[in-house]
Structure formats: C-alpha cells, structure tokens
Amino acid sequence: MSFNLEALIRPNIKKVTPYSSARDEFKTPADAGKKMIFLDANENSLGSPLTHWYNRYPDPYQHEVKLAITGIKNIPASNIFLGNGSDECIDLLYRCFCEPGKDNVIICPPTYGMYEVSASINDVAVKKVPLLPNFQLDLESIENAIDQQTKLIWICSPNNPTGNSILYGDMEMIINNFDGMVVVDEAYINFAKQRSLLLTLQDYPNLVVMQTLSKAWGLAALRLGIAFGSEEVISWLNKIKPPYNINQATQEIALKALQEVGQVNEMIRQLVLLREEMAVQLENLPMVEKVYPSDANFLLVKVKEAVKLYEHLLGDSIVVRDRSKVKLCEGCLRITVGTEEENKKLIESLNRYKG
Questions:
Q1: Rounded to 5 degrees, what are φ and ψ at 274?
Q2: Check: CATH 3.40.640.10 for 5-21+58-259?
Q3: Which residues does 70 contact at the CB level (< 8 Å), separation at least 6?
Q4: Would you give the distance in Å from CA 260 to the centre of its chain?
Q5: In b/e form, how buried is each residue of 35-65, taking b as 16+ CB within 10 angstroms?
Q6: Which of 37, 74, 301, 351 has a CA-to-CA distance to 81 between 20 and 30 Å?
C-alpha cells in the first residue's frame, strides 16, 4: 500500500490559515512562571471569583498534560492530540479528511453511535458493514464496500455495545490494505487482555488510535479524549481545532490524575474481578439467556422480555442500557459494572422479577 496523507486532506482544509491565539504568538520561557506580565489576550487582569489564575487562557496545546501521557504511554507528545472528549476527535477527523456531500466512511454496527451522528452532522455518507454474528469484522464485505471516496474506516475495539475485542490480525489487515485513514477507538482497552495498537503506531501512517480518560481513569465528567497518530496527522488536527479546546481546570485535574497510575491499575483490577463475578451471577438467573464475553467495563446480556426487564429495573432505581432493538443485539441489555454494592442490588432486583 502506498499511503499519501496529503491526498486525503480536504482541499479547503489545506487552505485554512489557523487562528493564531495570543498564546500561540508568544512562547512562555520555561522558567518564567508567574513573573510574566500578560497584557496580550484581553483577559480580566483583576482575576476571577474562584482563583486568580482562572482569568488566564489555558495552554492551547496542553503541553504538560501531553508530557504526562508520554511518560505513561511512551508515545511522543508530537503524536498526541487532546480533544474535548473523544467526540471532538471524531468530529475533527471528519472535518479534516471528508468532503461534505462527496466522501463516505465505513462503520461496523453495532458500534458506538457517534461515528454515524458526527458523519450526519458533517454531511458525510455512511456505509454500514455489520459485524459477523460472532461480533468480528466482515473483512470481505468491508473490502467490497470501499470505493475511491471512502476516506475513513471506524473500528471500536473493545467494541461498544458488544464488549469484545476485535481480532488484532483483522485490524492490521485493514490498516495494511486501505489507503485511507483507519481509526481504532480503544476507549475500553485498559480492561482488555489484548494489546493496544499504540504499539504499532510508528509503523502505520494511516492509523489513528483513540483513547480516553473517561473509563479506566474515571474522569468522564472532565471530557478529555486522546487521539494518537503520526506527527503529520496531529499537526492537521491542531490546525483546525478551536484555539483553547481543553479548559484550564480539566488540564489541572488531568495532570493530578495522571500521577496516580498505581491507583488506576488497582481500580482496573477490581473492575475486571467485579465484571467476572457479575457475569457468573447473571448466568444463573432464569431470565438470562446469554452473557457475552467482555473485554470492557460492561456486559452485554441477552434476556427474556428485555423491555419489561429494563422497566422493572427502572422501578428499582437501577438504570441500564436497552439495546434490544439494535441489530445483532436483539433482546439485549448493556449493563455497566458497578460497585460491589450496586451489583448486589442489581442481582437482588433481577431475582425479584416476576415476568
């Protein structure tokens, strides 16, 4: 495969002159600290009701946070893009590579819904190649669906809502044989035994790997998504992102969290144990027909009378996700692994069901 990134970039994007913020034009010396007098960005120099330093715009490229991620992932900061949630990364990839009304992308449902929603917002056609009954990629159908206007292929692994990891070799097969961009969403990779595709990032200029601080790191409220890619891809995303897309509070909290790798690893270990325990308990219930294997922090569970069971749980103030009308997930509920006490209440509620 001969990959040409420049040929994939939308013509209008190539012509964009990025917005130059005040902090872009002036690079703060590393040892300057708070000695600098900033009169360049029309900020409120008197401070704010919360803290004096929230009156200043944040680092537009989140250098400290990226360096912290580099220390954990062993990926250079120049290969890291931070988004306001992974959803911003998804949107920017569409804006960068897909011409509205002309190009198309491939998704493999059932999968994360924002790939299709963001495509619709950007007026990009979506080709759906459903997963096989075992929730793996249909490689032959994907190959047949690709045409000259196919710019992105989205793969979620571990997949949401099915919970399984996509076969590593199948993903590499697509990356090696597709001359567009392949985006692998690894939001749940920390809960999986399968290794991350980050290890092969330097080998594939057409690969983007997305991860997040929302799941294993427990920071969903912060909205901090991560896209890893070649320096060229990251540089294009930086050109078209909003000037200050990651706020100061998020950067500060993320930096503190990224220092607690040991605590996060322990939470991952506990959640995996709770997941396996929950799976066994669910399998013993009469209304449960199947608990699908999971590499994520949730279980896809096929049940009798899914809608009625969903409503029963709501009556006990337990909210799960009804996926019963999704193709290949018929009759299924998606259940997040909760705390030990929450999981106990879930099982107790299911045992009371009289459907």
A1: -65, -35
A2: yes
A3: 76, 77, 80
A4: 21
A5: eeeeeeeeeeeeeeeeeeebbbbbbbbbeeb
A6: 37
Which ranges in the chain belong to alpha helices (H)?
Answer: 5-8, 11-14, 22-25, 63-73, 86-97, 114-121, 139-145, 168-177, 231-240, 248-257, 261-283, 306-315, 340-351
Can you give the pLDDT at residue 49?
87
Choose among 211, 163, 171, 204: nearest CA to 187.
Answer: 211
Please state the separation of Cα 212 from the chain's center in Å. Answer: 5
Q: How far is CA 308 from the centre of its chain?
A: 31
Domain positions in the chain are: 5-21+58-259, 22-56, 262-351
Residue 212 CB-density burial (10 A; 0-12 exposed, 13-18 middle, 19+ buried): buried
- Tens digit of pLDDT for each residue in 276-287? 999 999 999 999
pLDDT tens sequence across 147-191: 999 999 999 999 999 999 999 999 999 999 999 999 999 999 999
Q: Is residue 28 scored above 60 in pLDDT?
A: no
Count CB atoms within 10 A of the CB of residue 315. Answer: 10
- Cα angle: 19, vertex 21, 22; to 5 degrees: 155
Place of tokens 């790997």: 209
pLDDT for 33 beyond 90: no
Q: Once rounded to an integer, what is the mean pLDDT over residues 320-343?
A: 98
* Token digits of residue 255: 């930096």
Joined tokens for residue 127:
């080709």
Type of residue numbered 257: A
The pTM for the full model equals: 0.94
What is the CATH architecture assignment of 262-351?
Alpha-Beta Complex (3.90)
- Residue whose tokens read 């399968």: 194
What is the β-pairing status of strands 332-336 and 298-303? antiparallel
